[in-house]
Amino acid sequence: MKNFFEIIISEKVIVPIITIIIAVILYKIMEKIIKNIKIKGNDFGVKRFQTIFILILNIIKNIIIAIVIVVILSVYGVHTTTLITSLGALGVVGGIAFQDIIKDLYTGINIIIDDYFFVGDRIKYEDFEGEVTDFGLKSTKIKSDTGEVLIVANRNLHEVINLSMKKTIFHIEIPTSIESNKLKVEKIINEIISEIVKYDYVEEKETVYLGIEKINSDTIIYLFKVKCKQGKDQELKREINQKIIEYYKKNNIVLKD
User: Fold this and answer.
1) 209, 189 Cβ separation under 8 angstroms
2) Measured distance CA(82)–CA(159) in Å, rounded
3) pLDDT digits (tens, 9 = 90+) for 111-153
4) Per residue in 69-97, is it b (16+ CB within 10 Å) or e — as a string?
5) CA-based max dimension of the chain
6) Cβ neighbours of residue 211 under 8 Å, at least 6 residues apart?
7) Please, are residues 16 and 75 in contact by the beta-carbon 8 Å criterion?
8) Which alpha helices (H) appear in the chain, and where do they start and end?
9) Which CATH number applies to 166-250: 2.60.120.230, 3.40.50.1970, 3.40.50.720, 3.30.70.100?
10) Element (DSSP H or E) covering residue 121
11) Using a CB cutoff of 8 Å and minimum separation of 24, what contacts does 115-118 make?
């Protein structure tokens, strides 16, 4: 029992545990600091910095893991200096084996420098389409609309279509009671448009009220056009519909089916 207790409180047990705990706490603190950094600017600039921050976080994680390994090996009497030297020699001998890792790192850096895509962008890789959810030193994660996650080594991302760079146009039809005041309705529509054009991904000049699309026996259909980044249209449509309901209710305008 005494021997067991001595083993539990020995340096070879306590130091690795404390080292791992400190490493986890340090990483969590750095993660919180980086994620709480508020970035101002347009949508493009914000996403670029968010991607860089995620990459920095991945680098910090790898550095912390390397330090923890070195500390634990030192506790167990492994000469880390000799080990690092041996690994360096092994790296020279087995350089071909590490070429893929080097390519991943090189491509990852180029993706950021050349603005190929950022976290949050919608991209198409071969036949897989989805949103970039994570970007690391070695790989990129892409999540489809149905929930599948594709993890691609950065070196293979030589041909990617960034759908977020494209623009899409859609029309919003608002069926309104024919008894509603036309000028009041048009004023409401223009107020809604003035709100949505504040978003960085909406084209202000191309988002306009077009007028009356159709008149039925009890309904007037008002029409306006929206131009935004591809991939943002569905989200924006839902938000516009919500605003229409809120504005109409607030102004006692009857929205028809």
Assistant:
1) yes
2) 42
3) 776 677 888 888 888 889 888 888 877 788 999 888 899 999 8
4) ebbbeebeeeeeeeeeeeeeeeeeeeeee
5) 94
6) 222, 223
7) yes
8) 2-8, 11-35, 43-75, 80-93, 99-113, 182-196, 233-250
9) 3.30.70.100
10) none
11) 115/48, 116/157, 116/160, 116/162, 117/160, 117/162, 117/164, 118/47, 118/48, 118/50, 118/51
Query: Do 121 and 132 contact (CB within 8 A), yes or no?
Result: yes
Q: Measured on CA atoms in the order 215, 216, 217, 220, is the torsion positive or negative?
A: negative
pTM score > 0.70 for this model? no
Q: How far is CA 98 from CA 63, 88, 92, 189, 218, in A?
A: 18, 12, 9, 59, 72
Residue boundaries of the structural domains of the chain: 2-93, 108-164, 166-250
134 — phi, psi (to 5°)? -155, 145
Torsion of CA 40, 46, 52, 58, to 10 degrees: 90
| Partners of residue 122 on adjacent β-strands | 131
* All residues at 6 or more sequence positions from 220 whose CB lies less than 8 Å from its CB, including other chains: 175, 176, 177, 178, 180, 182, 185, 212, 214
Answer whether 225's CB lies under 8 Å from 145's CB: no
Burial class (CB in 10 A: 0-12, 13-18, 19+), 180: buried
Q: What is the pLDDT of residue 184?
A: 93
pLDDT < 70: residue spans in the chain: 1-13, 38-48, 78-102, 113-114
User: Residue 135: which H helix or E strand, with range?
Assistant: strand 128-135
Topology of 108-164 in CATH?
A: SH3 type barrels. (2.30.30)
